[in-house]
Design a protein that fits this description.
Elements (H helix, E strand, L loop, with lengths): L2 H15 L21 E5 L13 E3 L1 E8 L12 E5 L13 E4 L8 E8 L2 E6 L9 E7 L11 E7 L8 E2 L2 E8 L5 E8 L5 E2 L4 E3 L3 E11 L8 E8 L10 E7 L8 E2 L2 E8 L5 E8 L5 E2 L4 E3 L3 E11 L8 E8 L17 E4 L2 E6 L9 H4 L9 H18 L4 H14 L11 E4 L3 H4 L3 E4 L3 E3 L5 E3 L7 E10 L2 E9 L8 E8 L13 H6 L1 E6 L20 H4 L7 E9 L2 E6 L2 E7 L24 E7 L6 E10 L1
Parallel strand pairs: 1-3, 2-8, 10-16, 18-24
Antiparallel strand pairs: 3-6, 4-5, 4-7, 7-8, 9-11, 11-14, 12-13, 12-15, 15-16, 17-19, 19-22, 20-21, 20-23, 23-24, 25-26, 27-39, 28-31, 29-30, 30-39, 31-38, 32-35, 32-39, 33-34, 33-38, 35-36, 36-37
Helix pairs in contact: 3-4
Length: 636
Amino acid sequence: MNRRIWTVLMTALLTVLGLTSPAAHGRPAPNSGAAAEQVLTWTAGDDITRYTSAPTTAVAGKATIVFENSEATGNTTAMPHTLTFDVSDPEYNNDVPLNILANPLDANGGRHTAEVTLTPGRYRYHCTIPGHGEMEGVLTVTDGGSGEDTTAPETSAGVSGERDDSGAYLGMATVTVTASDTGSGVERIEYAIGEGEFEPYTAPVMVHEVGTHTVRYRATDRAGNTSAVKSVEFTVVAPRTDDTTAPETSAGVTGEKNVNGEYVGRAKVTVTASDTGSGVERIEYSLDGGPYLAYTAPVTIDRPGHHTVAYRATDKAGNTSEAKRVTFTVVEGGGVPAPPCPEWDERRTVVVGTVDTGVPNRVTGNRCTINELIEDERDWASHALFRKHVREVADDLLDEGVIDKREHRAITEAAKRSGIGEPGRNQGYRDLFDGTRKSFEKWRHVGGGAFGLNDDGTITSSTTVPGMGMLWFPERRYDDFSLKLRFRDDAPGTGRANSGVFVRFPHVHDHPEESRPEWVAITYGHEVQILDRPDGDQYKTGSIYGFDRVGLGGAGVTEKGTWNEYEIRVVGLHYSVFRNGVLINEFDNVGGQEFSPPRAGDPGTDGRRYASGYIGLQTHGTTDVISFRDIRVKEL
């Protein structure tokens, strides 16, 4: 295929995807009329990881944007690129929706211009062509002059609340900090109480301890200039006692966000409370339906997934506010290491096997919960070894002050009653989907299609949302495991459903070169096929798709509308697939694909895939209707 045909096809594809040159804010204008006050030039070449050149600063006002992606700038392959200003992230300016597509073979020879008006602040720009995700940067715009911002923000603070005749605040005082910057704009505001460490300021600060207080504050602009530290002083005295009104509460979530509004790596939740009567006695929070814990500092959540933090406050007269909630999603990335937890478990209380201790499932010093440190999912050689393990974990938690002596006894007694390690008692399966909405919301969908939750505790693929996609469980990778689930073929008419279970694939958003993220599971993981249709695809139920075929005779066929139990057991490179308790396939992950050679980026050249990864369920289309239930896993 010659370069011109390839470029025409790529341009057509990008038009479908919406990556066309802008029509309103800066249509490419090689013969633009009136000149703007400044010219800002970006260039690109063959590299898909960075622009060849790009400006870093500019001055607010009119500007001519030049984007050249031509042979003169190093493009020898007719590779198209875009220059796109991101208008979806609130951390950056969003008033210039620039979107220019250029390649050496287009009508302008790859050189395009656009007239825009820039405002002070920061603009994030990037290339939106799939696979070119590393081409990005930030343009800082100042308010004029030399184009360099050297002036720190202006800051001020005010204290409010009910006061007595001497001017002291009754029960509590609220400190509100403001900052402004006419150059690059305010990047962040910080505060500190007394001589404490500076914290991000996200909401007014409530101080309810009796005594004299000092709140220090400062601000930093987007050019890195930090203001001098200022402070306010005030006194809080004991409140009146005839208080029947609960405290007012609020919460804010901070952290680095991606273009979808998801927090990358971690999110920090800051809770505040105020009470004009008796004053705030305590603030409490609950993570994902867990027990309420004392709130003493901003709470950092770094586990990938969708989260809900509930919070409430009680005043000194005993009035407790109604619980409020904030919800958000954390995705992997940002260089934040995952906590070194043996397993994943965020249940409300510590449960050993099936014995509920009633002890709150607290987060420990290494960011693992107590349940996660008690490895009741493992296959223990004896009951005595398991009890020894639990006792050692409980001893360490007691020494660290995470639990008290009563809770220590409850946990060790539960280990004794659990029977884990005794013959016939080593089940150890953990629910990934138990039929509840709470467990369903821990899964994420990518690609086409959709799954919906039914009233009977099952999930079914959509008959109205087209396309192939995947529902996957992002909260934990699995190495060696036994996965059990039940599936039912609900295809309409005389058809049979085509679906599958994906295992050991990497995090889908770590592979930007894949234009369709559900294909990461196919390219880098393994699909255990579900298909009882006698014709069509040769890979039937139990097959490792693309690697190891199983025919209908080997897998067996059940009537449509009948529940089947699947067990997929993976140990090292060996895969065992059971249907309704019968072994229907064994596969060793050491050979190449039957229908194509390994793809670029595939681990190893002999077809070997990852030894650890995620679990997902495939939706194949609106006629391939499939239902799942009772999804559980045990680490081996």
